[in-house]
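Practice problem: predict the structure.
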Amino acid sequence: MKTGLVLEGGGMRGLFTAGVMDVMMEHGLRFDGLIGVSAGATFGCNYKSHQPGRVLRYNLRFIGEPRYMGWRSFLKTGDLVGAEFSYHTLPTELDIFDSEMFERNPMEFHVVCTDAETGQPVYKQLTRADYDCLEWIRASASMPIVSRPVRLEGHKLLDGGIVDSIPLKHFQQLGYERNVVVLTQPKGFSKKRTRLMPLFHLLMRRYPAIIQAMSRRHEMYNAQLTYLQQEEQAGRILLIYPEDTLPIGRTEQDEQKIRRVYKTGRLAAEQRLGAIEAFLNR
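Answer:
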């Protein structure tokens, strides 16, 4: 039976996920595959490259670096998260991403993007840690309005969370029958319709499919939460989530908040470690 790790996004709420991943890596927990969306992809790739601590390290190191993330980057390049610096300069020169381990590790790694022209999900398995691989990861985390669509294989791609925020069903369809799912919202959370729809109508009018998807995103997300509850009750998944709403913004640059949310993720994994091990080995 194939085991999977499913990681939702949430911007810098993903530091919670990073804490969970680091504890699991430190205890040698292995999965047959991982699928990540947005921050779940940008941070999750470090599980396949087996680099515990890397996510926290580079986020702390580059706080306030305008080329990394911020409105200066957006005004200069059209991307709130700097495309070239964050996805190419940083992993190849400044905090090296272990591409050899990524390619050697037999764990499959999948990302989810959204086709900006059709509004449909695009799923991609990444096996080589080359330039295009990093671009697919960037595409998965390219939030609409504050990111330019990423052109890959005939698609114009944006954040995968627009249409498939928690891609458990897709992974199950690929044969992953036993999955650990890491969420970045607490139990009982319910997504509301975004109040930014007027902004989407104004700034995303070239991509009407994205406007439509964003208008329905809360319905999609809440339906996925219902499905997670059903799968958890059936014993097919194990859920890890924060106990309370994480005190961090999507583009947070406060060091104390970053450390706190990361530690919260570590604590959640440590408390569930025995249950995770039993779930994977039963």
